[in-house]
Structure formats: structure tokens, C-alpha cells
Write a structure and sequence with these properties.
four-stranded mixed β-sheet; 2 helices; alpha/beta
Length: 120
């Protein structure tokens, strides 16, 4: 028995707007969108996420997550330049002592997305 992948499911009352943010701003592709289910599947290179309005069995007041979504990349500086004037910044591009160059943004729901590049 093997685990194969992890695909975050982001809860939102604004599924359409979230799809527009991820496709229009972050460059994701919408692989599937079901308006009647309020659900979408998005991908960019090897990163996949789903967005949905929570079903009636799940308590939901607003989007909340106590961590961040960390996306590994090979060009944090290039992504920073492409995004810095289009998004709300959590923290700017920085090189850290632990060998990563990274920055973080907020998506349209307030979820934190970090982009990090391992340095040689």
C-alpha cells in the first residue's frame, strides 16, 4: 500500500473568483469546473489543487488554514517579479540562512501561498 499524492482542497464561498485568481494571476489551468457542485480542479506544472464550497456536513464560516501552502520552484525571483504588483504580499522575496529563497502571498480567500527555491 502506497500513498501517491496530496491534493489540497481549498474551501471557499467564492469558487468562481478563486478559479479566476489562480488561472488569471498565478497561471494555473482549470482542468475541471462544476458550477452545480461549486467545485474546481486546478493545476500548474506538477502542482494540483481543488477548490470547493464545503458540503452541508462540514461546518464553514470562512476560509481558514493554520499553515501555508508551500510551492517549490526553480525560479523564485522570476515568479516574484511576475506577481509582486498583482497580489497582496505576506512577505517579500528573501534569502534565508536555511538555504531557501522564498516569498509568500495571500490568495483571494486569504490563504497563504509560499514560493520557495532551494539554493545550491
Amino acid at each position: 500500500m502506497a500513498l501517491k499524492s496530496l491534493t489540497p482542497m481549498l474551501y471557499s464561498e467564492q469558487v468562481k473568483e478563486t478559479v479566476e485568481f489562480y488561472t488569471g494571476v498565478l497561471g494555473f489551468t482549470c482542468n475541471n469546473y462544476m458550477d452545480d457542485w461549486s467545485w474546481a480542479s486546478l493545476a500548474c506544472d506538477d502542482v494540483e489543487i481543488m477548490v470547493a464550497l464545503p458540503n452541508a456536513h462540514l461546518p464553514f464560516e470562512k476560509p481558514a488554514f493554520t499553515g501555508s501552502f508551500y510551492i517549490n520552484t526553480d525560479n523564485a525571483a522570476g515568479i516574484w517579479e511576475a506577481l509582486k504588483d498583482k497580489v497582496r504580499i505576506c512577505y517579500p522575496l528573501e534569502t534565508f540562512d536555511y538555504g531557501m529563497r522564498e516569498f509568500a502571498i495571500y490568495d483571494n480567500n486569504g490563504y497563504i501561498i509560499q514560493f520557495g527555491e532551494e539554493l545550491e
